Amino acid sequence: MSSKKDSTTSNEPTAHKPPVCGGIGGLRPVNEEDLQVWDMYKEHLEKKIQDQFKVPKSHTLKPVQVATQVVAGMNYFFKVELPDKKYATARVYHVPW
Q1: Do the beta carbons of residue 63 and residue 30 sit within 8 Å?
Q2: What residue spans define the domains of the chain?
Q3: CA 14 from chain center: how many Å?
């Protein structure tokens, strides 16, 4: 549980808020399922990121964190590490059915 305090009550810890329907979840570490989705779109994502951010092809792009959003499918917001400890966000819309 967070040690942050709610601004309205100074003695109570902040409670976890329930997810909002259609809302984007918080960033979390990438798991195997996320990597499977990344791998499906990897070639396209790498080309877009390399072109947009002038990333050399020798640099291996890898997602370090992800947030998800349930829509008519699933949006994945991958936080991708670039050279020089910079990051980009790549959105993937994936329909698993």
Answers
A1: yes
A2: 28-94
A3: 24
Rounded CA separation 90/45 (Å): 7
pTM score, two decimals?
0.77
Position 13 scores a pLDDT of 53
Coil, strand, or helix at residue 65?
strand
Question: Which pLDDT value is given to residue 16?
Answer: 53
Element (H, E) at 76: strand 73-81
Distance CA 33, CA 39 (A): 10
Residue matched to tokens 């020798």? 58
Query: What 3-state DSSP class applies to 50?
Result: helix
Q: Please state, in angstroms and rounded to a whole number, the distance separating the CA atoms of residues 61 and 78.
A: 11
Q: Among residues 91, 88, 33, which one has the least CA distance to residue 64?
A: 88
Q: Could you say which DSSP state residue 85 is in?
A: G
